[in-house]
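Our preliminary data section would be incomplete without showing what the modeling component actually yields. Below, a chain of 237 amino acids is followed by its predicted structure, encoded as tokens that our downstream tools consume directly.
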Amino acid sequence: LKVLILSANRLSGEFPSVATTLLHLDARQNRLTGGIPRLPASLRYLSLSQNYLWGPLAELGSGSFPELAYLDLSMNRLSGPIPASLFSRPTVLSSMLLQRNNLSGVVPTAPRGESYGPGSIVDLSHNSLTGELSPILAGVETLYLNNNRLIGSVPDEYVRSVCDGTTRTLYLQHNYLTEFPLERGMSVPDSVSLCLSYNCMMPPVGLAGCPSSAGTQLSRPPGQCSLFIGGGGGSRG
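Predicted structure:
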């Protein structure tokens, strides 16, 4: 058995351990509960999105999925930090969708020699990620980090990646970021969607590259910014 597709059913309970040479597992849009099951190291495609899975991502952080290229665990109840090993092979695992969970901690800073390439997508939006943004995701073509609790200045690596057109979509709205450091002579191409609204940037940035879901407020109220950043990022926005 190489491909197993069980999506959009009414499967419930914990997903059993799968000990085969499975390459493709799709069980999204069910009612599965429990933690991430033990999975075969041969997987290249894994989607368990839109279930009720909970617990940490430790099972995926062991580095035992050398050929995993597509990972979608979005819209569950997963919690805890994102393992740094998930960012260590960007030319292999080039599609990673973890949005709308309860993930916390910082975006890992583990060094890597490889870079994300064309067609890559990483979505970590709508979680509780904190701290300053590390440059590890610079170069992702489509990158969603919005609706978290990130602080500080956007690293130069992201600015360059946006301005040279490598990153074509960068959503950073609804965080607590303080600066997008465009150097003199740099500009954002018209083909790039960049959204920075509802952060703590002064002067406020525009909404031209934002989706309608970002709202119409350019910046957070100053009181929110001073309370959150001054208090070490402990409040929720």
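The first helix runs from residue 156 to 163. The two ends are 46 Å apart (CA to CA). Preliminary results of this kind motivate Aim 1 of the renewal.
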